[in-house]
Description:
10 helices, alpha+beta
Amino acid sequence: xxxxxxxxxxxxxxxxxxxxxxxxxxxxxxxxxxxxxxxxxxxxxxxxxxxxxxxxxxxxxxxxxxxxxxxxxxxxxxxxxxxxxxxxxxxxxxxxxxxxxxxxxxxxxxxxxxxxxxxxxxxxxxxxxxxxxxxxxxxxxxxxxxxxxxxxxxxxxxxxxxxxxxxxxxxxxxxxxxxxxxxxxxxxxxxxxxxxxxxxxxxxxxxxxxxxxxxxxxxxxxxxxxxxxxxxxxxxxxxxxxxxxxxxxxxxxxxxxxxxxxxxxxxxxxxxxxxxxxxxxxxxxxxxxxxxxxxxxxxxxxxxxxxxxxxxxxxxxxxxxxxxxxxxxxxxxxxxxxxxxxxxxxxxxxxxxxxxxxxxxxxxxxxxxxxxxxxxxxxxxxxxxxxxxxxxxxxxxxxxxxxxxxxxxxxxxxxxxxxxxxxxxxxxxxxxxxxxxxxxxxxxxxxxxxxxxxxxx
Length: 457
């Protein structure tokens, strides 16, 4: 619907310069920020001060053999490209708030009538005016979507920290396994020499020598497998730090930190419900779809446009114009509302599903933590002391001639086996705890470039 009004030429040639002056005056206009837009920009500024300085990575810690786990974690969180991509997705979503809530640009129009000569020349301006509340509603959608992008960034930081911890602990395990297997190899080498000597004196049989040699071959093959797996774990550790294949390998710590802290299941579960970044992202998705319902209802109201043209030639006059859209397709409008409501219900279902999955994951990781803790306590408090006591008794009997040497070496190998099992249980326990605190509860590690710190369990 367009209304055209004729106004006689009471605004002479001064009208056209005034129109041009209005065009230049509008080039510096600023829109009205949406609700939450200023806060979102401040949050980006706060994180950027830690994470990115002038679009460049913040200074990374120098890694040495004396670096602790916290140094490796901080390096990975600042250097890995996965959280970096999520960070820039979040920054882009915050900029999208301004784009979405802004009014359409005015249009400069130009119209001329030419027959055998130029008879009319009319420059003008045209404005599109969205219906009341439409821009604010769209701004709320963009604001809630940007919150979801932030929580995706937070989740990426937590995932990077977990990957680093997991590869760190697994590398620690293989180093311990290599050391203990080398001790076993030394023990078997000595046992072989003693068994050979005893077989020559008739105190042992040749099958005893073959048995020890078979054990040596088995341990040697296991060491080769461990050395091979060590290279794979080194590659995983390097990747977890965000280092490319062309960059130098990181220095390995001279001493690995395993961490023996305990946790209270009830407190950690409470923190998980409050701080899990995946749940927060899905809750933001629910709010985004709720705002989308408001946008769908706003589409029922018309949009407007207004324009003004100035005639340059005699007689000078202005042509004002006005128009509005007519939202007459009721089935389309009803479908938009229904679609928005369905999106909201789907988002709520995904949130509920994520809460159920979180409970299952918490139960699984907590069980692994408790199981490995029990195994570790059994080895440390009961089995290892008893085997150590057995070794002392056999050693005393060997000196007295009542025990043979093979019994002593068997007991010593049993102790080394228990140490291997303890190392595996300690590693599984540390990984389960890292999974519980980082991926389930969402407790950020020290130095994480995040906005809020989760409550500590």
